């Protein structure tokens, strides 16, 4: 039986759409597995899991976002930052 070769790469920071470097504090998959959300600075970055492309940047926090979660309904749960 042949084993698939897998290369894994983890970066603890990303570049957002405005070319700013953001540190990643939390990462979660959407309930259906089609999106990855990353808490990066005061943004939530939404990635497509199939293509690996950045789809959206959710803004609105005044401070760093440290935690992400989904509700059981599949909606994104309110995020946690130090000032929110």
TrEMBL record:
Segments forming domain IFT122 first beta-propeller: 18-78
Record GO cellular component, one term: non-motile cilium
Entry's Gene Ontology BP terms: intraciliary retrograde transport; non-motile cilium assembly; protein localization to cilium
InterPro entries: Beta-prop_IFT122_1st, Ift122/121, WD40/YVTN_repeat-like_dom_sf, WD40_repeat_dom_sf
UniProtKB keywords: Repeat, WD repeat
Repeat as UniProt keyword: yes
Protein name: IFT122 first beta-propeller domain-containing protein
Originating organism: Pocillopora damicornis (Cauliflower coral)
């Amino acid at each position: 039986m042949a084993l698939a070769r897998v290369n894994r790469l983890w970066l603890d920071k990303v570049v957002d759409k405005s070319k700013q470097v953001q540190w990643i504090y939390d990462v979660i998959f959407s309930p259906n597995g089609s999106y990855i959300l990353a808490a990066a600075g005061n943004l939530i970055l939404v990635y497509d899991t199939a293509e690996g492309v950045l789809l959206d940047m959710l803004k609105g926090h005044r401070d760093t976002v440290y935690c992400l979660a989904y509700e059981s309904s599949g909606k994104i749960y309110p995020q946690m930052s130090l000032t929110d």
